[in-house]
Structures are given as C-alpha cells and as structure tokens.
Amino acid sequence: MPKLKLWLPFMLIAGVFLAIKLHSLSIRASDTNIYWYTAKEILEGKTLYKDIFFTNFPIIPYVASLYYLLSGGNLLFYYFTAALESVTTGAILYWIVVKQSSSQLLAGCTAMLYLFSFMLLSTSDHQTGVFLAALFVIASYASFFQKKYILMGVLTALALLTKAYTLPLLLTYIVILFLENRKALGKFLVAFSTSTFVVLLPSFLFAGKDLWHDVFAYSLTRSQGVSKIGIVWFALQHDFLLVGLLFLAIIMLKRQKTLGIFSLLSLLFFIFYKDIYYLYLNVTLPLICLVLPQAVTQLKKYVSINKFMVPTILLLFISYNLWTYLVHYTTLQNLPLSSLTTEISTIDPPVLYGVNGIAPALAFLTRKPLLNSIVDTNDNIFRKGFLNATSLTDSAIAQHALVITEGVYYPEANIKQDILTDIVNSKRLTSQCKLDRRFPFYSEGVINEIVFFRC
Fold it and tell me: Tell me: the pLDDT tens digits for 214-234?
C-alpha cells in the first residue's frame, strides 16, 4: 500500500485535532510559564537546581530550551508544542496498530481514542512535560515491539527523567524481560542506566546537593494536593471508556502481559503515591489506548461485529468529549494579558513576585525580573517549608515589588478575598502594600480574580 494512502486516515484525524488546538491556543495561568521561564534562565547562563529552584528532573527544561531557540523565544509556540507532541504520539500509536493488526480502521480508531480523549483535549492546552513523557513512553514501547532493547532503554530513561510518573513503565519492562528474555534485560538496564547517568551528570557535577534537595527531598515528602476520589470521579465522568480499558487490560493480563502488567502497576502507583493529578495520568494514556485493538480482536473471536460498530461507538464518545471541551474548557485559565501587561508597564515596578504560573509569564512578557530569581512558587513548596512566605513577603516589600495574587469576588454572596495563596504573609502584605487593581479571570475552581498589590 502506498505510504500516503496508508497514512491518510491519520492525517485527517490529526488535522482536525490540530485545527481545534489552534482555535483554543492562548497563554494561560499554567506551569507552562514556569518551564518556559526556567528555559530562558538556563539559556542566560544560570545553573539548574543551583541557581534555579526546580522540582522535576531536567529533561523538561532542556527540551523547553530547545523549543525556545527554535521559536526565537515565542511563548505561544511553546504552548502549541503540547499538541505537536500529542500528534507525534498518535502517529506512533497508529503505526503500531497497523503493524500488529494490518487494519487502518483499528489504527484510526486507536489514534482517535487517544487524541480526542477528554484527558488529552482538556490538558493539552498547556505544555507541562506530560505529553513529551507520553511520547517517550510510546516510542519505547515501539522499540520493545521491534525488540530494539538498547533504544528501549534510552527512551525509557528519557521518559522517567521527564516525568517520574512513568515509573510503572520501567517496572513493567523489568518484569517482562526478567520472565521472558534475561539477556535482553541486561541490555535494557545498561542502556537505561547509562542514559540516566549521562542526562543527570551535569547536575551531579555542578549542583549535586541542590538536585537532591529540589527533586528527591521535595518529591518524596510532598503531600497530597488533590483528592484521589475526585480524580477517579472526574475520569469516570469524562473518560469512562479509558477506565474500562484499564481494567480490561488487567483482566486480560495472561493474553497481553505487557499491557496488563503496565495497567496493574499504574493502578497501584495511583493508589499508593500521594500526590497524583488528573493531568499526569496522560503518561499512561498511549498504552491504555493500545488495549482497544486487542479487546476488539478478542471480542471478534466470540461475537460477530459489524466493522462500523466500533467507530460508531467511538464517535459518540468523542462527540461528547468535544462538546464538553469546546463549551467549557477552551478559555479556561486564559490570562487577560493585554490588561495585565499594560498595568505593569504603567506601574513599572523593579521586580515581580506572585502566584505560580502567572508571575513567570508576566515577567517574561514585560521583561521584569522575578523576586530573588524564584520561578516556581507552588503553594505546596511553602507548605513543606522549602520556601518561606514571610521572608519573601518582606523581600517583596523591601524591593518595592508588584505582588500578584489570586482572589475571589462574588458580590451576590457577599464574598471578597484578595489573597488565596500561601506564598505571602497576608497581614504584612496588606499593611505594607497598596491594592492596585483586580482583574476578572475565568479559572478552574472558585478563584475568579487576579489581584495586583504595589509595595
């Protein structure tokens, strides 16, 4: 079959997905801005972990630095790379299913399930590294499928060093190869260990203690941020088909060991690791989607299925996802950039300090430095004592910073609170700094304002 004809179904699916993502493309309140600003700092000569507090392994800022160079420092393009990485993952999924089943229809259905799952639609408006991790996950599985164990080891290391949430993938390969091919296990582990060492070597040499402090000490002690029951309920509401495939893979473990073990280990990781977010479930998504063609193949052995039955069910599932996403999520977290940057230009503060995901974007776009060069101000970092809200509030006051907080304003319920964050000492901030302006903001949850304080 000519290559163009082979890939035409996927090109149509990917084209629709990219068109939707271009339509919703915008700069948002997002961790995306933290990674982008970190990349800028690295390119300006600062050392990760030593000069920049960073709680992840280094692949995300390294790749962000590459995107920065390729785009000439275009933040909006960086947001769009999440969609590009997702499409690349979808292409590998499509290729694997075509090779396994020789069915373009099944391959197209698998790619659609992945690209139009609600999980991917709702989170790929942000570039958080999970889609790069998912790309490495599916690329490593493709290498496993082709028995290229050294390449598989390299890609698995890259996946883990992008997001540690991919740990179940590493454990799956170790179990499978230990049971089936111990010689290949040796090759895999050598490639994995060597790749991990090479990537982490600069950080070990120049910021060893800081690497341990920022990544391991923080991650191993971080508390639960979101209710797991809430995550499960949200997944059942929006991605019930994927939840069903996860449990089906576990049930079919004897027939499909790799996908079954991976699904089981992923479920156990979700249960026992404290700080899980819906967003990070994306790293499991490509392999869960691969359960679909396996399930259809098994079902055909027992039941006569019309070839249009699976695409029809899938289209109904996708239609619901698209409607929910387009109505409720395309503008979620969008920053009122024009108003925010104009106000900052008018005030012309010497430094900015503010909430996670907003201050780095405003600092980058207005070319204002961040207070004490602190990029990541996640509330959890303050709760764990890695940063101190009182001392940083005092620094903000002393340096005449513009402080950016989030708040709530519901006049119909007589609710008004300008500081809903743990990154500042509220009493000191309100007594020493003047409330400048409130900006309406469509956010997830109760927060509906961005608030400026002038110190």
Answer: 888 776 566 556 677 878 888
Burial of residue 444 (CB within 10 Å: 0-12, 13-18, 19+) is exposed
Three-state DSSP at 171 gives: helix
CA-wise closest residue to 443 among 418, 404, 403, 406: 406
Between CA 359 and CA 144 the distance in angstroms is: 42
Among 409, 405, 403, residue whose Cα is nearest residue 448: 409
Q: Are strands 402-410 and 352-354 parallel, antiparallel or unpaired?
A: parallel
- Are 397 and 351 in contact by the 8 Å Cβ rule? The answer is no
Q: What SS3 state is found at 392? A: helix
Could you write out the DSSP letters of every residue in 111-161? HHHHHTSHHHHHHTTS--SHHHHHHHHHHHHHHHHTT-HHHHHHHHHHHHH
109: nearest Cα among 93, 133, 87 = 93
What's the chain's length in residues? 455
Query: What does the pLDDT look like over 165-182, one tens digit per residue?
Result: 999 999 999 999 999 999
